[in-house]
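Why does residue order matter? Because the sequence determines the fold. Keep that principle in mind as you read this record.
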Amino acid sequence: MSNPPATEGLVVEQRGDVLEVTIDRGDENLLSMPMCETLTELLRRPPAGSRIMRLRANGPNFCLGRDRGERDPDALRHQANMLIELNQALQGGELVTVAEVTGGAAGFGVGLAALCDLSYASPSAQFWFPEVNAGWAPSVVLAWLPRMVGRSQAFRLTATGSRLDAEAAAGLGLITEVAKGDEDLSDLVESEIAALLPHDSRTHHEIRSFLRDTASASVDQAYRLGVERLTLGVLRRLGSAGS
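Structure:
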């Protein structure tokens, strides 16, 4: 991809190695399906030279979910599959993903933050799953949430719609760290990105790939894969050094 696509609701700017993507769609910052398609495309086929996606939002909330209203079964399945593709691209695409969460993150918005490689939040941020209030189970969320916070917490969060503050979300592993103050969040994210940039992007890719491929593996399986990946990685670097 040579130029970032233009999509209503997203502001995309490339600053050196960092692709800055800002959700800008009113107070709720609901994601439309075109926005989901664009984010997936950016992650899977990013502009040349970009290594990191910094995902943040304008307005009082990070993202309160996605557009709803479809009633046709085929359309609903298509939408759900698009959401799954975006979830997978956040961790399996070409870019290291860093979320910067302010205000509210609800429903799919929680996943958008939690499934990034790194996720930072302001102390005033809140996280919740409101689907139970509308009378349905967030089954796409439940595909990944128990693996991150455990079955019991996943049930509690989705069955009650309870809100988590940023510290509680960090304690459960939904996000990486909470800034000292709301005004400190941007500086925290910039410092974490600065810590990533000096290191080899291929090594970052290998780390992300191993974490993804062993997410549901046993410890023994992970060790066996680790031996193979380590051997291949060392041999490749020795070959590169000798050429």
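The two ends are 30 Å apart (CA to CA).
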